[in-house]
Queue: 2 jobs
Job 1
Amino acid sequence: MARNWWKILSALLAIFSLIAGLKTPLAPGIHRVSPDRLSYGVNQVEILGYNTRFSEAESSLQLWLQNGSTSICPYERVVVDDQRMRVTFSIPEKVEDSFFHLYINNDLDGTMMLESAFLHKNLTVVEYVEKDAQSCLQPLSTQEAGGFHFPNQSILNESIRNLFFHVPSWFAMMFLMSVSLFYSIKHLRSGGLREDVFAENAARVGLVFAAAGLLTGSVWARFTWGAWWVSDPRLNGAALGVLVYLAYFVLKSSVNDSQKSGRLGAVYNIFAYTMMMLFIMVLPRLTDSLHPGVGGNPAFSQYDLDDNMRLVFYPAVLAWIGIGVWIFQLRNRMAMIELKRNYA
Amino acid sequence: MPDFGKHFYVRAVYVVALLLLPAALLAQGESGAEWMYEAGKINVVFVVVAVMLLALLLYLLMMDRRLRKLENEEKLSK
């Protein structure tokens, strides 16, 4: 029992991240507006909220459009239910920006914003618009929604929770590849068969997590970016990293002499690890892409990972690393029995 | 040296094919995938969790088979 505490801990953390990751509600947000184009004159639009309480907090409800430096307030507003309102705006002929951002504010939901909620239709975009009676002086204040929740980002929506499964999978893969590198270097120093087997097993379990990472990423990409695979530096880098490791197994199994295959494999592993690090960690940061954590910004900025998500994300990382190491050790124990039998 | 790498790619291809099966089924036309966009795309999360667990379970299954082989050899040698 004393030796197994970390296995139990990993399992508990995994259960925690699963439950907390799925049960925590998303912050209130603006789901959709229709129609999403505004033209000169009177425009009636329907606004759909997500996890919002429009009617419950109607007394404190504020709503406005932001266009450049102009705020446009509705002149009529009908709250249908907690998730729906019908709003009428009067849009001037000249505007400062082709996009209108939508802000909704109330005491229960806090301030919600839908960026570029509306596009203009046949309006004249000018540098500066004289403020007249139509523009209002909101926003008065912005406020936070109460309670423990995850951020509600457009397009991502609930799928933001995938972060607790997709990203830790890659972390576990990196950890196991580092373990593999450690044993490869140890093998080069000692020449022991044991270390070679350990290095191979770690890479193998690492590849399982890489496969899970690629596949979960693919599903996630399909329903946020619209394709199973997008040609993106981070995605292609990850795929190349996996291929580099597949070649490690091809190389190892193609040499029959165990000493020779061990040595070759260990040297190649150092190369593979470096390449993977370059492909996954370095190269994607040099260019722009859809994937967070690319183009210079690490994925840990406040926009990608807020404090509430960290509370679930880091336990998930520990959990999957722990489970990976657990499987790795089981694999090793099996391999040691095989090794003993074959040399008995 | 026991043949640790034997048939590894064949198995890897099987595993990937099995894991891609749900995805391939989902890809049957745009109309079939609409449920993934419902309720704030929460179903995407369920599929992702399922894929994660499936990947680990398949690997456990592979280990199980290998252990079974080892046990059988043990029996034979006795």
Job 2
Amino acid sequence: MLSQLALLPVLLPLIGAPACAVLRRPTAAWAFASTVAVLAFVAAAALLQATARQGVIHYAFGGWAAPWGIEYRIDLLNAFVLLLVSGIAAVVLVASRASVWHDIAENRRTLFYVACLLCLAGWLGIAATGDAFNLFVFLEISSLATYALVACGRDRQALVAAFNYLVMGTIGATFILIGIGFIYMLTGTLNMADLAQRLPGLGESRTVFAAYAFIVVGVCLKLALFPLHLWLPGAYTQAPAIVTAYVAATATKVALYVLIRFSFSVFHLESSRLALSLEAVFISLGVVAVFAGSLVAVFASNLKRALAWSSIAQIGYMAVGVGIGTVAGVQASLIHLFNHALMKGALFLALAAIAMRVGGNELQALRGIGRRMPLTSAAIVVAGISLIGVPGTAGFISKWYLVTAALAREQWLLALLIVAGSLLTAVYIWRFVETAWLDQNPAQPATPPQEAPPLLLAGTLLLALANIYFGLDTRLPVGTAAGAAAGLLGDSAAGLLGHPPAPLPGAGAP
Amino acid sequence: MELLVNSVLLMLLVATAGALVVVRGLLASTMLTSVYGLLSASFFVTMDAVDVAFTEAAVGAGVSPLLLLLTVAAIGRGEPRAAGALPILAIVLVTITGALLIIGTLDMPPFGSADAPAHTHVAPRYLQLSGEEIGIPNVVTSVLASYRAFDTLGEVLVIFTAGVAVLLILATPGQRGSARPRYTPGSHSEPHTILQVVSKILIPFILLFALYVQFHGEYGPGGGFQAGVIFASGIILYGLLYGLPTVCRVVRPAVVETLAAVGVLLYGTTGLLAMLDGRPFLDYSVFAANPVLGQHIGILLVELGVGITVASVITVIYYAFANQFEMAEG
């Protein structure tokens, strides 16, 4: 059984999706999809334990040795992303029923869950594979399924948003395919480990340069890194409430993983002549994303749209970490990948509950929501202060590691900008607090409390509490990210000891 | 001679692509898309990629222009003239991308060179050993159905996803009154007697040919993808000439939707059986005492899965589009 463990997280939704399509009753489809996601999460957790204990786990499909066959090489980074994505998917799918019944017509609910499982299979397949073309195939699965899910939104505008996403996403996928085609032509192999060995021998080939450029631009489109973010606000705002929670907490994270994997494992960016210029590109685009995204979020009149723009800002932080390019920088980026998924998962699930009760996420309509839905609103505040980066929350850990990584390279200005970005976050979270508690809705002065449906509420609270838990007990994200970053940059000694940029911030840190 | 054929085909491709950008009418664009697909298929034939050419001819030149046609027929053929000045930023971006593509080719191994890395690293083993290891003459089938079978499972899932996506977005009978039947009789199906007679003669051969391509994929160009597309085009031809309600009586939509999932499940189960025996996913050697025979059986099964899913999904997509068209008509 253990020898098959590497494949299980991917295989479960992969086979589960067509099996789910045969089910007739939507409730059965929901129960089935949730079970599959939970099992995938359990398998991913076991896999992370196994990789932490025994190092890289190999799996040769069909019994054919790499590079002739397709291979999984699960290291800490793969297992970390698998755990995060399957975990979020499990929580969101279990919590999804009420919101999906509210948003999706009855005859489409089964197919909706099939598409959710296809998405999950795609994301997990990307995160697990050790083969560049296999990565592309699974990218296509997840992309197509995501476009369809976004198009299911209640408003007809969702179709336009999904179409924009489809066009941008397809350009991104095509660029990635061109890049992979180029490196295949130069090396004759598609296996990532094999590529990593053969690419350095080619020296400063212009084709390698072009290949990397195509892959980076393609992945950044999927990642929605500023200025390639144009599809994101529309897609997140118009998608059904559950889909936004499902996609926001996972899809961009998987794209960031692909960026990191190709940059450091396949192309060895750190030892390339390109490193300096790319460092500047990622850091400056990241900083611009932080400020542009946060500023638009501050002025947005719809909370869902505000949080969509906030995602663009948070992706900026992750790009900065990649741009810093040291073990500490990549580690900070990975920690934020993990923590941001928890924040946005909680926030968008809470918005799904509010949309059910209020009929939308316009700030106007949310006046007094703090009294009508106290627990859901509290979850938004908890995830919100984590988003700001207040000590004691997961968000603080992200920012702490990012700032120390910047300071370690004596980038004082960058560190300052990272902190300044948090202040902007505080503004739009405060706007919600103000609307929810301080602003009374004159139209309905005394509405009785009407909380979210139990499962949806439980999922929201679970993710919100995770923001506190991982702010206090940082072993899982920080330790795994340290090992993964060290593994990527080939500095295992420094990384496994944590390479602590500063004393670990505990519960009552500065 | 080959150079001449290649150059002419490529120049025609460029000209068609240029015309596609310039032309305004949606009907004209659709026909040009079909031309583009046919030219691509011919180009693939000259590149000795007959397997790909099969699919491109059926999908690129046939099915997808048909879907576009149904859409154009439903929404009207005019395209509003784009307002405003030249999209300068877009032109600059496209130029940069094009330049990058050309720069990328500069350090590439020369076209067709025998000692290019693509021909010297992984590929030789496929060519030299697949005869012993898998024992079928068509190396392409060996690679895609066994050495890289997991990719192919992924591709089948991509096709399945496309079907799910279309059904999620298009087949919305509940939207305008729940009692509405899903596939309403069309008003456009006035009989085209000559076409109907000819197609009735043709369709059995098309279906037979699809089965030949399906089960002959180990020996010659072909396999599940090609067979599925050809099979579906036979069904679609019937639907075009006899109307959607008739073809839906012959090939019921609910059945096809289930079959789309069954094909993927057949592929997946074939892989799972190896796992039950403690071998890696998709290791076909468990199917028989003789591993080469096991490979044969495994490839036959997964190709069958591919064929079923591809034929079903393409039929499902056609049904959804045609249904949309009939709703616009009625």
